[in-house]
């Protein structure tokens, strides 16, 4: 397991479009996912200890952000052959068990992760209604262990600001997580 920090926000970068299969059997596009005040795109997976440490907080924050007009979508881009815990069938089980309030999509070709520049799980991308990047930071101070209750909710506060102003905060702390598990042919290319 390699721990990585993604780069911080490149403000204004347009969100790459996608057309991906969700665990609900529906094919989702970027436009389908957008909320009235913005969109949070999350690269997550089922097996990563960093994702597991914040899983409950992701669910809490995405549910609360819906009240501010911010929709969310989760994309799983890992190699499912070498990481079967992240298979489409297991994605369906996890989404049902935790009643995901957002589409959970599989990026089988890994092209969408590459288009976004995603490097780890979790990796968060917050967009305004013009599909312009406004946040590329951490959920909170959690690492492989959940940060204490009362910890500043970096992502939630940033996306709330995007909902109100269309712009994210200038100061952002990058996320940390496990590297995306690239397919061997993709890694060699």
From TrEMBL:
Read off the CDD domains from this record. PRX_like1
Q: Which SUPFAM superfamilies match?
A: Thioredoxin-like
Query: Could you name the domain of life of the organism this protein comes from?
Result: Bacteria
Q: Name one GO molecular function term.
A: oxidoreductase activity
Residue ranges the record marks as coiled coil: none
Please list the residue ranges annotated as the Thioredoxin domain: 9-144
> What range does the record give for the signal peptide?
none
* Protein name per Swiss-Prot or TrEMBL: Alkyl hydroperoxide reductase/ thiol specific antioxidant/ Mal allergen
Q: Which organism is it from?
A: Methyloglobulus morosus KoM1
